[in-house]
Each structure stands twice: as C-alpha cells, then as structure tokens.
Amino acid sequence: MIVRTIIHLSRSGKSIISANRVLGAKASIIPGIHSHAHQVFDEISTTNSPDFNQLLTSYTRNNLPKEVLQLFLQTKHSERLIDCSTLSCILQSCRDLSDVGLGKQFHCICVKNGFDKVVGVANSLIGMYMKCGSIDDGRKVFDLKPDRNCVTWNTMLSGFMINGLGPEVLQLFVELRANGAKPTLLSYVAVMKLCGNLNQLLLGQQLHSCVIKEGFGTDGKAMTSLMIFYIKCTKFVQAFKIFSSMSRDVRSVKSWTAIISAYVQIKDPINVASLFNKMRRDSVEPNAVTYSTLLTASPAISPFQIHALVIKSDYHRVPLVGTALLIAYTKMGRTCESLSIFKSIDAKDIIAWSAMLACHAQAGDSEGAVNLFKEMVMQRIKPNEYSLSSVIDASSSANAPTDLGKQLHAVTIKYKYLNSICVSSALVTMYAKKGSIESAQKVFDRQSNRDLVSWNSIICSYAQHGYGERALEIFRDMEKSGVEMDSVTFIGVLTGCVHAGLIEEGEKYFNSMVNVHHIKPTMEHYSCMVDLYSRAGKLSEASDLINRMPFPADARVWRTLLGACRMHRNIELGEIAAKNLISLEPDNPAAYVLLSNMYAGLGKWEERTKIRKMMDGRNVKKEAGCSWIQIRSTVHSFIASDTSHPMSSKIYEKLEEMMIQLKKEGYRPDTDLAQSSPYLRPSHKNSAQIPKFQSLLHCLTKKEEGLKEALGRRKEKKQ
Fold first, then answer.
1. DSSP codes of every residue in 72-126
2. Helices 34-43 & 2-12 angle (0-180, nearest 10)
3. How far apart are CA 514 and CA 493, in angstroms?
4. Residue 637: beta bridge partners?
5. DSSP string of 556-604?
6. Biggest CA-to-CA distance, the chain
7. Which region, left, alpha or beta, applies to residue 114 given φ > 0 means left and ψ of -120 to 50 means alpha?
8. Which of 201, 258, 287, 544 has the least CB density, counted as fewest CB within 10 Å?
9. pLDDT, tens digit, 9 for 90 and up, residues 107-141
10. How far apart are CA 243 and CA 221, in angstroms?
11. Is residue 309 classed exposed, middle or buried when 0-12, 13-18 and 19+ CB atoms within 10 A define those classes?
12. Which Gene Ontology terms cover its molecular function (predicted)?
C-alpha cells in the first residue's frame, strides 16, 4: 500500500517532495522495505540529489553498505547527483565493508569535485582509511585539513585506538590541546581507556581533573570510563568511590559490570553477590559481559543459578557467555554439562573450541579431545597455541596411545607453533609422561625463549622419572638464567630430592623457598618433605613436620607416612597415620589395606582381622589394579588375577621362567603378607596378579614372537 501511494504521488506529478518524504520515512522505520524503496526510486520519473540522498541515508542508517554502493552504481547519471551528503554515505559504506580500494576511487571523485575540502567529507575519508588500516593515508587527509572540528579530532583518536597505536593517541591528544581545540566527552573517554590499557596512572589522574574541570564530572559515560581506568590500574578504592558518587539514574549496565569485576579481581564473593542483587533490584538488566564476569567469580554465585538466568535472558547461545559457562563447568569437573553447553553455542569461536579441548584434557579424555580437534580442523578453524597445548595435554593421559603425542607434535610443526612456549612446554610434559625423557629434553633444547613454564616442565619431568640430580642441575641453570621461581618449581626440586634421597639438599631448598624466595609452602611442598623423611626412615622428623604445618595434613601426607611406617615397622606412628587417613577418606581402601599389611608383617593377626572386618562392615572393597600396554597401535589391558587375555598361558609360562632365574640369582619372595590373606596366596604366581607384571610379561612374550618371526623370514630368504 505504501509503495503504491508513493508511486501514485510521483507519477501524478503533484508532489515529488511528498514522495521523497514518504519514501525516506518509511525506509528508515519499516524493516525490509528497502527493496520496495529502491523500486519506487526507479519508478520516479524525475530524480534529483535530495531523492538520491534520502534513499542512500536510509540504507546507511539501517546498516546496509552493499545496498548503498549498488544503488550508486546502478543509478543513471549518479555522478551528477553527487554532493557532500552522498559522498559521506558512500565513504561510510566503504569503511563498513573495509574496501580501501573502492574508497580511494571515491577519494579521487572528492578531489575532482572539490569536496575533499569540506569538513564532513574529510572526516568520512579519515574514518574510512583508519578503519581499513590505511593509517598513513588517514593521517595525510588529517594534516591537509587546517579547519578541523571536534569530529575530526575524535575520528583520528578513534582510528589510532582501533589500530593499537597507543603512543600516537597520547601525542595527538596533546596536539589537540596545544591547538586550542576543546576535547569532547568522546575524546576524554577514548584517552582514558588508553591510559587504563597502558597502566598510565599519573596521566589518567590528570585527565580525571580535566574531566571535572570541563563539567563532565556527573556524566555517566565519563564516570564509568574513569572507574574502569582505576580498576585496570588496580586502584580499587578510587573506583569504589566513583561508583558510590554516581547517582542511580546514571549507573548503566557497563558501570555495574565494571564494579562487579573489581570485586571479582580482589576475590570478594560476598560483595559480588550483593552488587549483582542490587543491580537487579535497580531494574538494570545484566548483559553478556556481566554474566561472563559473574561466572569467573564462582563460588560467589552458583554457576547453576547463573546458568538459569542466562537461559531466561536468552544469552546461552552467545559465544562469550557460553564459553564462560563451559569453563565454569569444566572447573567443576562436569564434562557432560560442558559438552552440552558447547553444542548449544552459536558461531563458536576459537576460544570456545579451546575451552572444550581443555575440558577433555582435564578429564583425561584423549579420544574426546582428538575427535573434537579433528572436527575443529574440518570446520576450517585454525588452531591457536592454546587449543594445541590442550589437545597435547590430553594426549599425555595414561590411557592415550603412545603415538598420538608424536602425531600432534607433527601437527604443531605444520601449524608453525613449535616456537610457542605453551605448546613446546606441553610437548615436554607429554613426552615425559609417556616415558620418553630424551624427546622431552630435545624439545626443551630447541626452545629459544624459555619462560617459567618451560623450566618447570623439564624440572618436573626429570624429578618424576627419578632423575633427581639431573633435575637439580637444571634448577641451577634456571637460577643462572634469572627466571623467577614459583611454587611449582620447588615442587619439582623437592620431588627430585625425594627420588634421589637427598635429605640435606631437600631441607636447604625448602628453607630457601620460604626465606629467600618468600613463597608460602603449600600442601604439596609439605607432602614432598614428609615423603623425603619417610623414605629415609626419619619418621619422627616427618611426624614433627606434620605437627608444625600451618594447616591440617591432607590424605596424601598421612598416606605417605603410613606407607613408610609399614616399611619401617613403626606400629605406633602407623596407627596414628591410619586413624587420620581413615577419618579423611573412610571409603578409600588404601588406608585399611596398608594398616592390615603392617599388622600382618608384624604377625599381629588379630588386629589385622579386625581391620578386614571393619572393611566388610563399611562395605569398603579393594579395587583391582589395572595396567595397559600398547603394542603396534593395539592397547592391551590387564586386571589383577585376570586370565581372560588370549595370551594368559604364555604370560604365566614366561613368569615361571623369570621366577626360576630370579631364584638362581638369590631372590626369595616375601610371603609374610600372604598368610591367612583373602587377597593373596603364598605362591610366586602372586606376581602375575599385579597388572604391571602382566603388561611387562606380555610385552616380553610379543617381542620373543617377533624375533622368532624375523629369524624365520631370514632363513626362508637364505634358502
């Protein structure tokens, strides 16, 4: 009906102006009418510059840059209709499409018709060039324009900001002031944002005074920018004061989100929850950034509650919020929920993919991580260093095939991320966990710029493999390099001392960590020291250290002490350790079994029987051990006392051969624990009940078969 009315007006010749007005108004208000508007424009017999500009402006306002350019190119005699308004619309479209080549052609038209001297057109040219990354061209237009207005200065400032030219922004702002131009609110906001990013506290404080002097002290945008600036500079008290001084009507969702993020940074969950509730009471609706900020503040507000609000607000498909939810559930170990959220995210970006890969890695799901990585590559999403390091971490899990890590190493080389510190450090850790310490060392040697993570990876690798002295040697190299240590470094060092039995060195490094590097010992550090003393038989020192700990010992510490008490037959201390361990982990069979074995070793069969009855009464079952080995891309699994493997008979035959050889060498099996035990029998076949022995024997059996086949093939060739 609207289109017919406009055509009727234009054809009747009564009022071409009326047609233009209806055309422009309806094109700006009613969505989807632009194609009809173009049709009307073609139907109008007489076209002039106002008609043309009216339609171009409507397209520009509705963010339709392609339609603007198509209209210009398809309209007859369009060059005759060009004026300043036309060129501003066209240059804005070139800017939105990032088409600098086409923009330069219209720049030529501007110069040809003398429009480049008009301030509005010059501003559009500067904006187009800066958005397209053609900084030099934008600066030339700016320098050739002596009569600049506030829009000109703001356009240049914004252009430098988008292109990451911080120093140029500050220099231009000084130039603006020196030329007597008055900065606008947008100028102050842009420069304040930069000061926060560059941590320029002094300059930002000077701008704060200028903002108040210029009369922007009560403006919501100005106050929010100042608050964000102080938060980025970690001056939280000033940020809180600014927020408190803001009236309720000027506090926007951005203001609330900024102040909530400040309390998240200082880890104040009570105020985070309180502010969020107050924000909702003030009828300010949270946005995607608010929800993603809150999700990083767990456990201030339960992720389940935030998830419900996110779904209610229809933000669950937004990548920013979806990724934050995914990470929150990953931290909780809820892989299924993380996967469900990942599938619901629209237009997944690389951050979402990396987060999901990290979730699989944390769960030790190498198969899931690899399948997801393949899917990501098939969708032509280029992996970044974080996604690669996550999938490499997943490949280092115990149940992952050995060759998987090597294949991912090749992928790393393909994508040219081998020089990335986080990727190469992940490779070092992966090779170490897979038992290839030589490959780990080679990757470490190729690293050009080693950081803390690199050094920690190689130190921990050698320490965990029992090469304590080598771990300490690398630690000394790290000290010479000048890289500052952290708590993880000393966990590796102390673990190395444990495996090498270096008690004095362990004590020295523990004291150095506390007194020289001022690192507070964590439970893992104390656990290493207890292990160090326990292995050396210094159980009283281990017990004293536990009593001096600033926090209660956890199950790892008591388990370590209990194992040492069993080994060194210290029944009194062992009972104390077992009591504490059972109170911490009443359903874990390890404490019961260790104490039971200790009683059996000392011949205290009644006490041992009581422990076994306690296990039965509490329905605590000893889980069967499991081990696996990969041979020719096939993974073979073994469970304690399992005879289901097709090569079980050959494995036991191999065991008989090995036991005979061991006895010849003087080995005598310890059968003390086997007496009256419902779990063990006094026979050398007990060794085969241990999954590690089964894996090893299977490997030896397969190797022998392989050698026999190879020798057989050689004989056939000779014949």
1. HHHSTTGGGG--HHHHHHHHHHHHHTT-HHHHHHHHHHHHHHTGGGSHHHHHHHH
2. 20
3. 14
4. 628
5. HHHHHHHHHHHHHT-HHHHHHHHHHHHHH-TT-HHHHHHHHHHHHHTT-
6. 119
7. left
8. 544
9. 887 888 777 778 888 888 888 888 888 888 888 88
10. 12
11. middle
12. RNA binding
Residue in this structure with the two tokens 């993919």, named with its chain if needed: 353
Cα separation, 77 vs 258, whole angstroms: 52
Ramachandran region, residue 677 (left: φ > 0; alpha: ψ -120 to 50; beta: rest)? beta
Which two structure tokens, joined as six digits, stand for 288? 């995607």
Of the pLDDT bands very low, low, confident and very high (cuts 50, 70, 90), residue 1 is very low
Contact present, 92 and 120 (Cβ < 8 Å): no
Rounded CA-CA distance 72/149 in Å is: 29
DSSP H helical segments within 246-316, as ranges?
A: 253-265, 269-281, 288-295, 303-312
Tell whether 137 is covered by a domain.
Answer: no
Digit-coded pLDDT (tens) for 479-503: 998 888 999 999 999 999 998 889 9
Per-residue tokens: 367: 């198969």
How distant is the alpha carbon of residue 273 from its chain centre?
24
Bridge partners of 199, per DSSP, are none
Full domain range(s) for residue 676:
635-718
Phi–psi pair at 688, nearest 5 degrees:
-75, -10
CB-based contacts of 307, cutoff 8 Å, min separation 6: 316, 325
The residue among 81, 24, 26 whose CA lies nearest residue 54 is 24
| Cα 552 off chain centre by | 32
What's the distance, Cα to Cα, between the start and end of the chain in Å? Answer: 98
In a domain, 694, yes or no: yes
Determine whether 174 is exposed, middle or buried from the number of CB atoms within 10 Å of its CB (0-12, 13-18, 19+). exposed
How far is the C-alpha of 704 from the C-alpha of 710, rounded, in Å?
10
Nearest residue to 231 (alpha-carbon basis) of 201, 268, 273: 201
Q: What is the pLDDT of residue 453?
A: 87
Q: Identify residue 406 by its one-letter amino acid code.
A: K
Helix (H, G, I), strand (E, B) or coil at 636: strand
Confidence of residue 188 (pLDDT cuts 50, 70, 90): confident
Residue 682 lies in a domain: yes
Q: Whose CA is closest to 645, among 687, 681, 699, 682?
A: 699
Local structure of 630: helix, strand or coil: strand
467 neighbors 437 (Cβ within 8 angstroms): yes
Q: Quote the DSSP letter at residue 628.
A: E
Note whether 601 and 568 are within 8 A (CB).
no
Q: For residue 256, give every residue at least 6 positions away whose Cβ sits within 8 Å of its Cβ, in sequence order, or none.
A: 275, 279, 284, 286, 290
Q: Are 187 and 155 in contact, with CB atoms under 8 Å apart?
A: no
67 assigned to some structural domain? no
Average pLDDT over every residue of 703-708 = 50
Determine if residue 631 is left, alpha or beta; phi over 0 gives left, psi from -120 to 50 gives alpha, anything else beta: beta
Q: How confident is the model at residue 51 (pLDDT cuts 50, 70, 90)?
A: low
Total domains, the chain:
1
Residue 493 in 3-state DSSP? helix
Phi, psi of 309 (to 5 degrees): -65, -35
The helix (H) or strand (E) run that includes residue 225 is helix 220-232
> Where does residue 99 fall: left (phi above 0), alpha (psi -120 to 50 degrees), or beta otherwise?
beta
Of 80, 64, 19, the closest CA to residue 44 belongs to 19
The DSSP letter of residue 14 is S
DSSP state of 684: G
Residue 30 banded pLDDT, cuts 50, 70, 90: very low
Give the separation between CA 646 and CA 662, rounded to whole angstroms: 26
Helix (H) or strand (E) holding 321: helix 319-331
